[in-house]
Design brief:
This protein is an all-alpha fold. It is built from 17 helices and no strands. It has a single domain, classed as Growth Hormone, Chain: A (Up-down Bundle). The two termini are 26 Å apart. One of its GO terms (cellular component) is membrane. It holds the Pfam family MFS_1. It is found in: Membrane.
Length: 411
Amino acid sequence: MLTLVYAFNFVDRQILVILQEPIKLEMGLSDAQLGLLSGFSFALVYITAGIPIAWWADRTNRRNIIAGALTVWSGMTALSGLAQNYTHLLLARIGVGIGEAGGSPPAHAMISDYYPAHQRGTAMAIYSTGVHLGILLGFIVGGVVSQYFGWRVAFFSVGIPGILLALVFFLTVQEPPRGRWEGAVQQVHKPTLAETLKTLSGYRSFWYLTLATGLSAFAGYGSGNFAPSFLMRNHGFTVGEVGLVLAFVGGFAGMVGTFLGGFIADRVGHSDRRWYLWVPAISGMLAIPLSFPYLLLDNTAVVLGVSFFLSIAMNTYLGPALAISHGIVPPAMRAQTSAILFFILNLIGLGLGPLTAGLLSDWYQPRFGEDSLRYAMLTVALLSSPSIVLYLLAARRLPGDLAQGLEMSPR
């Protein structure tokens, strides 16, 4: 159920991506405005609201918070279909961001209370496949519905079912005991945000990891949010064709990569926790060179084939990152720790990735014309490459940090 809710989170977040070309034509928008709409404006409220909601989740019923948040973001997605201008759409997206801020941190904390430490990489990875299940559904529904009924109906078709799911979730999901695997003694004190930050401040591996995931997301959102536009402009796809193709490439391949990241980390990391950081580092080393044929070749079949493996490589980091983050803090700090991680991840990734790609595309346009977007997306991919070094630095610091007393439970 948590994974399904997370899928709706990303259906509602990514539906705009598949619809941005028809919206751009109707409203006369620039690529920079699209980047602001799908990235920075959403991310700003998403990350700002995420920390206080996570603080609340560490103190109260997390299931209820998720059900309420799902109602809000689904309702605002449906309202997006009524937008008459850019400002209306921007305000609706801000509302979606506020609602979605209440989704992931409480869910992460619940999962860590459902599963012991040696299973959390896989559990978090399975949950995180909701990202790509949502992308898959969003691309299919958005592409097909938009082509036949228009982009406004597409917003209604994904927003209204989310409100119904919120009721089902509230009635069927049970709140797990907090700190189930670590002992009830750790549940007594409810730490403040300042205490959580103070605890994390002494663990440099967490901050290296957080910056690394931010740069991974920078590439993912920067290129991913413009993938439909890239295929339509440079490879002649229709909006319906893009929806079906990216459902497979961005959705299914992303699910495979996300699951494999956590699964492999759990299998090889029980004897050496640094594998939780080495796995995304190795994947990043594979993703950078794959970006060149994906973005620069004109053979559509080759481009789509490469993009499948590129999507797998780019999406291995989230499960291991969440498992490590929750392993170094007490149970009562987990929702806040997730919110801090997601604050930086989404500020860099979701906030700056699409906006940077859009600005670069507009800047490159006088020189490269229709190819401006492909070079903008390639630049974004190259700018994310320091994430590899940061994962390795985090791995180098991790044993010492764990030895200071913040331990992960053994297998």
